[in-house]
């Protein structure tokens, strides 16, 4: 755990030093790709763990699907109701 926190602090320091350079300013795409990769790896770890799947398989799947559907409905509602106010359409 100390190693992980040390790497986090080191990365923050390097980011602070390099923040004025042009190539480090646009990191949103690489951050998105990294987060997607981490979520995928986390999913494969959970999916390969038999204990987790046997104990909470169906309820976890149901909660996950309902959470995704709820997020999609909320995003659509936001875009439909509030998203068009400032666009001039």
Q: Biggest sheet, open or closed, and with what strands and sense?
A: none
* Envelope shape: flat
Helix-strand pattern: HHHH
Structural class by secondary-structure content: mainly alpha
Instruction: Look at the structure and give the mean pLDDT.
Output: 79
What is the rounded Rg? 20 Å
- How many helices? The count is 4
Gist of the model:
This protein has helices spanning about 1-15, 20-25, 30-45, 50-80. With about 90 residues, it is mainly α.
Architecture overview:
By secondary structure, this protein is mainly alpha-helical. The protein has a domain of 35 residues. It is 82% helix and 0% strand. It is built from four helices and no strands. The chain is flat. The mean pLDDT is 79.
Features:
single chain, flat, 4 helices, 82% helix, 89 residues, mainly alpha
What's the topology here?
Layout: H1 2-17, H2 22-25, H3 28-47, H4 50-82
